[in-house]
Amino acid sequence: MTKFRKLNRPTGHRMPMLRTMASQLVKLERIETTVAKAKEIRRLADNMVQLGKEGSLSAARDRAGGYTRLLRTRIRVGDAAPMAYIEFIDRENELTQSKPATPQPPQRAPFDPWTRSRLSRQFAPPKEEKSSEFGI
User: Fold this and answer.
1) What's the farthest any 2 CA atoms get from each other in the chain?
2) Residue-level pLDDT, tens digit, the chain, 136 residues
3) Whole-angstrom Cα distance, residue 73 to residue 95?
4) Measured between alpha carbons, how far is 49 from 69 in angstroms, rounded to an integer?
């Protein structure tokens, strides 16, 4: 096999782990794993798809590679490892019906800053004129 990342595992553990994860990717179409493992699984999965298409007519017309997508998701709580989803690009359930647009609220008239002051004058009691006691 070609050279892979070691992923802090001996070869006897690393190769079966990658094969198992690649087969689970084919079965489930999407799995979550660490970013480093997802990058290695991507190589295996793309090769598996290419080998499956070689005998068919569509293999000549189709793209060469790029059958998987890597989506970084979160940082794992226990060891702060970056996690990612790896999934096939042309999945069956990937395209869903779009939701209908939410109705927009009716448009309000533009706000006039003087409206409130006019209304307050209309309902305010009349001002009393101050009379002076001295009559000057």
Assistant:
1) 116
2) 567 778 878 888 888 888 898 888 888 888 999 998 999 899 888 888 888 877 666 655 666 678 888 889 999 898 999 999 998 887 666 555 566 777 887 877 776 666 666 555 566 566 677 766 665 5
3) 20
4) 14
